[in-house]
Amino acid sequence: MTYVVTENCIKCKYMDCVEVCPVDCFYEGENMLVIHPDECIDCGVCEPECPAEAIKADSEDGLEKWLELNAKYASDWPNITEKKDPPADAKDFDGKPDKFEKYFSAEPGQ
Ligand code: SF4
Ligand code: F3S
After folding, report:
1. 0.90 exceeded by pTM
2. What separation in Å is there between the alpha carbon of 52 and the centre of ligand 1?
3. SS3 at position 35
4. How far is the CA of 90 from the centre of ligand 1 (A)?
5. Domain residue limits at 45
C-alpha cells in the first residue's frame, strides 16, 4: 500500500504535504507533486494536510492510473522536501474538472 497524489493537485500544488512527510518521498513536477510508492511508509500524515484533498490511499477504488503516474514521475522528477510558494492562482484551479487532460505537465519542477 502507498499514498498517491491525484488529479486535483494539478495547478494547485500547495506543497503543505512535503512539510510533514517523515521520509521525504515527494517529487516535484512543473505543476503537481507525486509520491514515490516504494519510499512511502503509509503513515498517512500527509493526507489531511492537503488543502486540495488530492492525496489518497491507493486502497481506494479507481486510483490505478494515479498510482502508475506517481511511480513513473517519482523516478523522473526531483525530490522536494520544503514547501515553496504555491501558484498565485492555485485557488482558481481547486476542483476544476479534467485537469489532467487540460493542464498536466510532464516537465520536472525547479
Ligand atoms: Fe510521506 Fe506518510 Fe504521506 Fe507516505 S503517507 S507520502 S510516508 S507523509
Ligand atoms: Fe498537491 Fe496537495 Fe501537496 S495540492 S502539492 S498534494 S498539498
Report:
1. yes
2. 16
3. strand
4. 22
5. 3-81
